[in-house]
Design brief:
Lipocalin, ten-stranded antiparallel barrel, mainly beta
Length: about 160
C-alpha cells in the first residue's frame, strides 16, 4: 500500500511538468492545402493556402495562415495561444479575431474561432500516422443553424 501511495504522489508531481512541456508534435511545420480537392468551383478556388504550426515556448502554440485567393490577393493571419483552451487574439483573419487551442494528442489540434464575440468555426487538424498528410475538418453553422462540415487535405511543405 505504501508503494502504491508513493507512486500516486510521484505521478501527481510529474503530471503538471508534462503539461507544461508537451511532446513534440508532427503538426509542427508548414503545410499546403491541395486546392484541387477544395469543394468549390475551380475558378473560385484560391491559388494557394498554407498553414504553419509551431511551438511558441512556455506552453504556447503559434499558427500562421497565408492565402492567395483566385484573384491573386494575399492574406496573412496569425495567432499564438496556450494549449489549455484560453482565448487569445488573432490578427489578419477575415473569419476570426479570437481563437482557443487544445492539443489532446501530439498529432491533433482543436481550434475554436470567433469574431466580434460571435462563434465562428471549430477546426480539427490531424496528422496521419506516416506524417505525409494533414487533414482539417472545419465545422460551422450555415443558414438557419444547419451544421456544415468541410474536409481539407494538406501536404507538408519541405
Amino acid at each position: 500500500m505504501k508503494v502504491f501511495l508513493a507512486v500516486v504522489l510521484l505521478l501527481g508531481w510529474i503530471h503538471p511538468a508534462l503539461a507544461e512541456s508537451p511532446m513534440p508534435s508532427p503538426l509542427t511545420g508548414r503545410w499546403a492545402v491541395d486546392v484541387s480537392r477544395l469543394p468549390m468551383a475551380p475558378e473560385a478556388r484560391p491559388k494557394s493556402v498554407t498553414i504553419t504550426f509551431g511551438s511558441a515556448g512556455e506552453g504556447k502554440w503559434s499558427t500562421e495562415v497565408d492565402i492567395v485567393d483566385a484573384a491573386g490577393s494575399e492574406n496573412h493571419s496569425k495567432g499564438t495561444a496556450t494549449l489549455d483552451g484560453t482565448p487569445a487574439s488573432v490578427t489578419g483573419n477575415n473569419e476570426a479575431d479570437t481563437a482557443a487551442f487544445r492539443m489532446p494528442a501530439p498529432n491533433v489540434l482543436i481550434m475554436a474561432l470567433s469574431k466580434g464575440g460571435i462563434p465562428g468555426s471549430t477546426r480539427i487538424y490531424s496528422v496521419t500516422g506516416d506524417g505525409n498528410s494533414l487533414i482539417e475538418t472545419a465545422v460551422y453553422f450555415g443558414d438557419h443553424g444547419v451544421p456544415i462540415m468541410r474536409t481539407h487535405y494538406f501536404t507538408p511543405v519541405r
